[in-house]
Specification:
With 659 residues, the protein is mainly α. It has 31 helices and seven strands. This is ATPase.
Length: 659
C-alpha cells in the first residue's frame, strides 16, 4: 500500500472550495484579463487545486484551459518564448477551426518572431517590461554581427552568424501600411492579433494554468512571469499561477541583484509579485482535526481504492466535517462504520493511527499534506519490510509510528532512545518508560485520560504503564532533559507506550537512517573491543596496537557503538566513561577525527563540564577538524555554563597562541 504523491482531482482536503471560488471569480468577468495566485508551501496541494480548476471548466465549451509546467521547460533556451509559443500552439491544437484562419495565425507568429531576435542576435537584452526590441536596437545588433564576421578568430562560427543576420533582416523587411513602428505599438499589435485569434476560435475565455514555477531556477521563473505580463492586458485571458511566494521572491532577488532591499513597508520582491498577481489565494495548513481526517481518508483510500463507492461515501461525510472542523471533530469509529457499511473493517488501522499520531503529526509537518504522505509511506514500507524479513509480528504499527515521529521531528530524542535500547539486554529504554509514566500521571490527575480510545490490540497503552517502576529512574539526567521540553512531553503523551516494548526490531527496520547496533550485534568479535574502551585511562592506552589492526569500517562501527553508549548515559558534567577510549581509537584511526568533532558538537553545552575543552591536542590534527573544534570552543565560550565558558576561552587562547 503506497500513497501516490501526484496531483489529484479527488479532494481529501476540502480544497475544492478554493478551486470553486477561483472558477466563479474568473467566470464572473470573462472578458477581463486577470492573474490569480495559488500560494502555499511545497506539498500543500497547489497542483491538485489546478487540477480541480481545470475540471471545473470542463463543461464550459467557450472556455479553454491550457496547462503549462514551468519546471518541464527548465532546459529551454528561453522560457519566455516557450510559454508564449506554448499558449498559441495549444490554442491552435485544441481549436482545429483555426486551421482555416491562416492569416490570423500567421500574424500572431510574426509578432512572436520579434521575441526570438534576442537569441538569434547573440543575446540581446530586451526591455524587461516588453520583451520586444526596437528596430534601432536590431540595427545595432546587425552592425555588431557584421563586425563579428570580420574577425578572423571567429570564422569557425561564420555560418551561424550569417544565419542570425538573415533571421534579423527578415524581421526588418518593410511593413505594410498601418503596421506598428515602435515598441508600445508592437505590444498592442500582438495583443490585438492574439485577441483576434481567440475570437476566430470561438473562445469566450482562455485560462492558462501555470504550475511548478517555484521549482524552477530564478531566471526561468522570472522569464515565465515576464511572459505572463505580456498578456496581462489582453482581454479574455486569465492566468492562474501556482507557486510558493517565498521562492518567487527569492527568484526576483537573484535575478535583479542590484535592487534595494526594501521600498517603503515592503520589499521590491514582494511588490513585484503583488503587481503581477492581482488576486492571491493561499492554501491553509491542516490543523489537528483536519490532519486526523486526512490520515484516515488516505489509509482507507489506499485499501479500497479511490473509485470505491463506500470510500466516496466516507469522503462525503468527511467533507461535511471539514466545513466546520472547529466544532465537528475527527472521524470516529461509529461514523466511519456507518459510511463504509460492510467494508468498515478496512478502516480499523486507519482509525487507530489517525487517533494516535494525528495531533503530533499535524504539529511536526506543520499541516503539510505531502509531508504527511511521505511519513505514512515510510511507516507502511518499514512494517512490510519487517514482514518480508520474517519478524512482522514483532513490529506493531502504532509503536513504529510513535518511534518514527521522534525520528522525523525529534531526531536528538530518537538518537538517545536508540542508543540506550540498542545496547540494553531486553531492548528497552527505562527513561522512556519514566517519561511516559510522568506525562500520563499528570494527564490522569487532570482527568484527561480516555480509556475508550481505539487502540491496537498488540500495542501497550497508557493504562498499562508501570508507573511505580518507571518513576524510579526519575533522577536520570536524560529524563530531566526530556521533561523540560514541551515538545517531547507532547510526543510522550501519544497513547501508544514504548517503555515496555523491545525496540530492537523497530531500530532494525530504521537502519536506512543509521545502524544503531554496530559491532554489538553484527560483528560479535568487536563487542569485546567496545567494552575495553570503557576501561580506565591507563588501561585503554594499551589498546593502541590492537585498535590499529581494525579495518576502517570496523573502527567506524566501534566508534559509533562507544558514542551511542556515552550519549545514552546522559551525564556530561564530568568526563563520561568511554571518552578516553574514543581518544585512543581516533589516534589509531585519524580518519575518525571528523566523527569525533561531530560527537563533541552534539553534547549539550548547558550541562557540559570543562573536561570537554582540553585533551584533544594530540588527537585533532587534521586542519578541518581542528578549525571546527576552535569554532566549537567559541560557541562554548559564549553559550556554556560559567565553568565551561572559562575553560573554553582559556583553551582557545592556548591553541591559537601556540600556532
Amino acid at each position: 500500500m503506497i500513497l501516490t504523491d501526484n496531483e489529484t482531482k479527488v479532494d481529501l482536503l476540502n480544497n475544492e472550495a478554493i478551486a470553486a471560488t477561483i472558477v466563479k471569480l474568473l467566470r464572473d468577468r470573462p472578458d477581463q484579463p486577470v492573474t490569480v495566485g495559488v500560494h502555499g508551501d511545497w506539498g500543500a496541494g497547489k497542483s491538485s487545486v489546478l487540477e480541480m480548476i481545470e475540471a471545473g471548466f470542463e463543461p464550459e465549451e467557450k472556455v479553454l484551459c491550457l496547462k503549462f509546467n514551468g519546471w518541464r521547460f527548465q532546459g529551454f533556451e528561453d522560457a519566455k518564448i516557450a510559454l508564449i509559443e506554448g499558449i498559441v500552439t495549444g490554442l491552435i491544437e485544441k481549436r482545429p477551426i483555426l486551421t482555416k484562419a491562416g492569416e490570423a495565425v500567421k500574424d500572431v507568429f510574426s509578432r512572436i518572431d520579434w521575441l526570438k531576435v534576442a537569441k538569434k542576435a547573440g543575446g540581446l537584452a530586451f526591455a524587461a517590461f516588453t520583451g520586444i526590441p526596437t528596430p534601432g536596437q536590431i540595427e545595432t545588433v546587425l552592425g555588431a554581427l557584421d563586425g563579428f564576421l570580420a574577425n578572423p578568430d571567429k570564422l569557425a562560427t561564420k555560418d551561424n552568424v550569417e544565419a542570425a543576420i538573415k533571421g534579423v533582416k527578415d524581421l526588418l523587411k518593410p511593413k505594410g501600411e498601418g503596421d506598428s513602428v515602435n515598441v508600445p505599438e508592437e505590444i498592442n499589435a500582438f495583443r490585438k492579433a492574439f485577441d483576434d485569434l481567440l475570437e476566430k476560435a470561438g473562445i469566450e475565455q482562455l485560462v492558462v494554468l501555470i504550475d511548478d514555477l517555484d521549482r524552477c531556477l530564478p531566471d526561468t521563473a522570472i522569464e515565465t512571469l515576464e511572459a505572463v505580463r505580456l498578456f496581462v492586458f489582453t482581454s479574455r485571458t486569465a492566468f492562474v499561477v501556482a507557486a510558493d511566494e517565498a521562492m518567487i521572491e527569492y527568484a526576483v532577488r537573484k535575478h535583479f541583484p542590484d535592487l534595494p532591499d526594501t521600498t517603503g513597508p515592503q520589499t521590491y520582491a514582494r511588490n513585484y509579485l503583488e503587481k503581477l498577481i492581482q488576486v492571491p489565494f493561499r492554501i491553509p495548513a491542516l490543523g489537528d482535526t483536519e490532519t486526523r481526517i486526512y490520515v484516515t481518508l488516505l489509509l482507507v483510500g489506499a485499501e479500497l481504492g479511490e473509485r470505491d463507492e463506500a470510500f466516496n461515501a466516507l469522503i462525503g461525510v468527511a467533507r461535511e466535517r471539514l466545513k466546520r472542523p472547529w466544532t465537528s471533530g475527527a472521524l470516529d469509529a461509529a461514523t466511519v462504520k456507518t459510511a463504509l457499511r460492510g467494508k468498515a473493517q478496512y478502516a480499523n488501522n486507519a482509525l487507530t493511527l489517525s487517533d494516535q499520531i494525528g495531533p503530533i503529526l499535524a504539529s511536526g509537518t506543520k499541516g503539510n499534506p505531502r509531508q504527511i504522505k511521505r511519513f505514512l509511506n515510510t511507516l507502511v514500507l518499514r512494517q512490510e519490510m519487517a514482514v518480508a524479513r520474517g519478524f512482522g509480528d514483532d513490529v506493531k504499527l502504532p509503536v513504529l509510528a510513535k518511534l518514527m515521529l521522534a525520528e522525523r521531528f525529534l531526531p536528538r530524542l530518537f538518537d538517545q532512545i536508540a542508543a540506550a535500547a540498542a545496547v540494553a539486554p531486553d531492548g528497552k529504554c527505562p527513561d522512556v518508560a519514566a517519561l511516559e509514566a510522568a506525562v500520563t500521571t499528570k494527564e490522569e490527575v487532570k482527568g484527561e485520560a480516555n480509556p475508550e480510545k481505539v487502540t491496537d490490540k498488540g500495542a501497550d497503552t497508557a493504562k498499562n504503564r508501570p508507573k511505580a517502576e518507571a518513576v524510579k529512574t526519575a533522577d536520570s539526567m536524560l529524563l530531566t532533559e526530556w521533561l523540560s521540553s514541551p515538545t517531547i512531553k507532547a510526543w510522550a503523551a501519544v497513547p501508544t507506550v514504548l517503555g515496555n516494548a523491545d525496540l530492537r526490531p523497530y531500530l532494525f527496520v530504521a537502519k536506512d537512517r543509521k545502524d544503531y547496533f554496530g559491532a554489538a550485534s553484527v560483528l560479535g568479535h568487536l563487542a569485546a573491543v567496545v567494552e575495553q574502551l570503557f576501561g580506565g585511562k591507563f588501561a585503554v592506552q594499551g589498546l593502541d596496537a590492537d585498535l590499529k589492526r581494525l579495518a576502517p569500517p570496523e573502527a567506524a562501527q566501534v566508534f559509533e557503538a562507544v558514542r551511542g553508549r556515552i550519549v545514552g548515559g546522559g551525564s556530561f558534567d564530568t568526563e563520561p566513561s568511554g571518552v578516553a577510549g574514543l581518544v585512543v581509537l581516533v589516534k589509531a584511526h585519524p580518519t575518525l577525527q571528523g566523527d569525533l568533532v561531530d560527537f563533541l558538537e552534539t553534547l549539550p553545552c548547558d550541562r557540559l563540564g570543562p573536561w570537554a575543552c582540553k585533551g584533544w591536542e594530540g588527537v585533532l590534527k587534521d586542519v578541518d577538524a581542528s578549525q571546527r573544534f576552535d569554532h566549537l570552543l567559541e560557541v562554548w565560550g559564549k553559550e556554556g555554563g560559567t565553568m565551561l565558558k572559562t575553560a573554553a576561552v582559556g583553551a582557545l587562547h592556548t591553541r591559537r597562541g601556540g600556532r
